[in-house]
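Input for the complex:
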Amino acid sequence: MNELTTVKINPPYLILIGSEDDATYAKTAFGIVQWRPELVAGQFRFPGCTVDLGVPDMSIEDAAAAGVRSLLIGVAPVGGSVPDTWWAVMEAAARAGLDVVCGLHVKLTDQPGIVAAAESSGARLVDVRVPPPNLPVGNGRKRSGRRVLMVGTDCAIGKKYTALALHQAMQEAGMKATFRATGQTGIMIASQGIPIDSVVADFISGAAELLSPDNDPDHWDVVEGQGSLFHPGYSGVSLGLLHGSQPDAFVVCHDATRTRVAGWEHFSLPSLTECIELHVAAGRRTNPDIQCVGVSVNTSQVDAAERENCLQRFADETGLPCVDPLIDGCAPIVERINQQFPEKT
Amino acid sequence: MNELTTVKINPPYLILIGSEDDATYAKTAFGIVQWRPELVAGQFRFPGCTVDLGVPDMSIEDAAAAGVRSLLIGVAPVGGSVPDTWWAVMEAAARAGLDVVCGLHVKLTDQPGIVAAAESSGARLVDVRVPPPNLPVGNGRKRSGRRVLMVGTDCAIGKKYTALALHQAMQEAGMKATFRATGQTGIMIASQGIPIDSVVADFISGAAELLSPDNDPDHWDVVEGQGSLFHPGYSGVSLGLLHGSQPDAFVVCHDATRTRVAGWEHFSLPSLTECIELHVAAGRRTNPDIQCVGVSVNTSQVDAAERENCLQRFADETGLPCVDPLIDGCAPIVERINQQFPEKT
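Predicted:
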């Protein structure tokens, strides 16, 4: 019997940021430290590295001695090719018994030195872009517990951030909640998850079902979204995730100033109304009571003076709480959820 | 530069049906002979085989001498395990220079004897369940030519048959048309295609785009559907195929007596109206003018006396031509297409 499982990462982490001097390339590393500081034991930096996560610098030896269990590659290599110095660190970590965890475009298992080192120590090589084996086909069976899914008018529009902020706000409100990661950065933050866009097409909804299993009736899974039902490249991923998550509630993520699909500028973004309607029309197939509970808006490109008006316009259009989670947090959406789902069923 | 390509099979074919005595297990073989007799040179049968495709019996030697280019496995092995006698035939065929083509659950490339034989002769081993490499992400760019996609209220509801029958009817009407295969049997019939449900989730619509490239303005691609937007397991495949095909027209495939999703009986089938509405709502994202042009109904379980009434009820509900393609053919749908798309744009 093959176990059905998600990708799993063992904390605590040592995060490799190499010799990076541009924090934007280290977004993953900063995200982990921001959202899950308790998982991070230290950072590995080469001399001259100016990026600083604000956690202790550690060598591989220090980390192994301190009980660190995984080396995470928390930066994207500039230009895409991985420097030899990084490979050397990964190999040393694997030899010292640390799992090596990354989402690079080069496969760890294609690096003989690292493979041999991992074999010698029993360390695991974890590629967070590789789905777990033995994924099931979605069965559509109703699961216990509640689920809220982030959806978007586009890709790269704040779904992961919103999920993490909403999860945090739910916990602050004393609710039982778990963040469920569907992409590589989210998986590193949550220390588990499934890279939903990398699964074979037949298993998308099955993977989503596996990711948010039966739970307490008053527990909420806060599911990171992927793609968009309106995206000409990635809509299949989004529909499978919607059907498999069978969400009770969803939050639409939007960018106040984006009017075209990023990178696919021959497509305009849908309106919030269109976006909500299509998600309800499609989503009710596996959850007849699906409803939208809020809108998360990136207002970073909006003048400060105009921001409140902008959010008010979206609120008027949808009749829902509209927040920029980075500025306002997600408490208004949590409040809405508690209004709409008052019973601990 | 890596070529973007579909799975391709070289005719003429020798079809292995082994020692089968139940024609239902040889559906693929019969389908190829029914729809593409010109591709089939012969059949390979063991002594005692009672199934007969009505084409010449041939040995591997005969086939090689006659210029046959591919051995196709046209039967599903009873119980799932492939008899040794079949492996021996495949190995002999590969050694004789015939490509070996199958969609078995065992991989040809895991059979050392067959791999060695193929290497010795230069024959190809083609698994029609394995997508071509280097699939692109869908770009959503408008392509020239027309497309009609089969969709369904469920899986296994006649989408392939309808596509083949509609393609045939279009050709009989003197129209330019190509059948585009998205599943393994369809690929064997068309001698090319992409097994769309086996591609990685991010590339579903890109694969669909590749499958129906730019063409003459008055040319129709007749695209085999997969899954259903309403299927709890396979909806992601269907939406990616819908968006990537960007169909001008679609045909809904339905079963007159099926009321529940086959194998997922906790789900009822959608009504034809619901099915049409959701496909228009989702499909207009990549083709704003998408429209339904007909309904293909399997009436095999309906009393002969009731059949006309049954089709008439569906026609009344939808305002569209409703046919059982096995009995009525698809001429009424072709007529509707020519009414709705009168201009050779």
